[in-house]
Amino acid sequence: MLALAWIVGIGLCLVAAAIVIYMGVRGIQYLRPDLIFSHPQVSASQAGSGGFLDPLLGTLILTAIGIIVAVPIAICAAIWIVEYGRPSWLARIVESSIEVVAGTPDIVIALFGLAVFQLGFFAPLSFTSEGGGVYGQSFVIAGIMMSLLALPPVFAATRDGLQTVPTHMREAAYALGKTKITTIRRVLLPRVRSHVGTGVTLGMSRIFGDTAIVLLLAGGTARIETQGSVPGINILRGTGSSLTTYVYGNSPAGEGAAPQKAYAAAFVLLVFVLLLNLAVERIGRRSAQDAGQHLGQGVV
Amino acid sequence: MLERLRRPWPDTRAERLLGGVSLLVAVGIVAMVAFVAVEAWPIFQHNGLGWLLPGSGLEGEVSNMTAAGNNAPAAVFTLHAWPIVYGTLLTSGIAVVLGIVISVLASVFIVEIAHARLKRVMIPVIRLLASVPSVIYGLIGILVVVPFVGTHLITTPERVSVENVVQLTGEGLGVAALILTLMITPIMVALISEALMTVPPTWKEGAVALGLNPLRAVRAVHLKAIRPAIAAAVVLAGARAVGEAIMIQMVSGGKFFAPKPIDGLTFLYEPLRTLASTIVDFHDGIGAPPLRATLYAFALLLLFSALALSVMGYLVKLPLRRYQTRG
Question: If you measure CA to CA, which chain A residue comes closest to B186?
Fold first, then answer.
């Protein structure tokens, strides 16, 4: 068994190294700076079909919307569960439902988004066709569904952080005459800032790497197409794509037969995700040094 | 009025607000199940639960659905989706079984065997593997692994043996299950190694004092002690494996075919589809009502299997409570 364990352990390291090195080699081979900064264009040949600026912007927009929607809800839920949590059956239901969200496949979340946002009530949020059919696809809709992906990591991190705050801090605040909500706002939340940061970064990396939701809900146009005339809002209501769907579309599985572009975009995606990972470790290590406590992350 | 909002809130109002937001999440989940179930209803109405069973040509049924318009006759709603369900069970089953073996070995390696410098390397490696997006796994699969399998591993007699039914191109069960194993291993390694680290060191010392050598001690003591964690890892990884859509769609060949174990080794090279990959394949046609109901029925099945896995994990952990190292 010793030999097997060594083989498996070293084997995993080799596989991970192989993936990173291979993607790195291919990425450097095919990535040119003008790819990152030029828009995709319709063209018969690969040389003219432009880069992936729009998909890159699409990823950033979706991540922003997802985090903005998810973080307040997750923090409120975590505070309520840890600090209040009455009646207890309701607390159990809320915790279980967040676990259900964490375990739901992203394609099911995408279909759920389609089902909800194709109701006529939500027509202002996306494209409508002339016959009155609501498409149910836009950046804001995809972003809202992405927030379901980011919700469990932020919730879990905040809850764990709040649970590690020692009771005597709360009691000291109450002894000074603070109400519960003020204690939360002024004492506890600043303490768990790094935990929230870790959770947010984990949520961001989940959103970055997701393809299915973008494929179904963001409209699938190569460029960012705006809808309506209010600046800013028209992008939110508009359609586009993300780096992940760009990679998917350019691979042999999608329509495009442009593996070079796919490799280049995949390299950029991998670099982003690795940077986010590094950020998580940095935040964890720095806060552990500051507070002298172990963030309790274990291996992952 | 703004002044009233800016004064410190009474605790009851804050509690109700926070509780309301939390309730929103729970309501959202119920809404998710409800919406998916309502959209999937036509399939259940027409087929009952029989749409899970094998039956006449799934390929034909799906193309009928795609071609039908808004007022499709009831017969178009017939569905026998067993090949897809079988494909899901196959890929996820193989991936979870392989993954557990690999993860337990890797976790034991990281926690017990590796010295400190190697441990410092392995932990970031696992984190890296866990955070790679599935589309990159799919890209490497379809651009590197599939051509390798197609040109070097599949032999001509194997191709000929199934050529009336299906083409062997390298995309298929083997590659899909292999990459799926690689995708779910980091989750399991994280859970299992965390559990291994919480086993009290005195237990191992006791076993060694009784004469076991350290590795035997790990097998005898630790692996039994972390059984709840292994159950949790199986559940989490199983849910992830069942729901993986994009990577499987890229490397599994996209045919409504149920790979036959009778074929021997060729079995691993046969193409298939899973529930999630079919949803990705046909998401363009979601306008057609029969196809829409079918895709939502698949989604409902995926949702229920994720829920069922959680419940099973909880039930499996119950009798193991007395072995838990932390209360």
Answer: A300
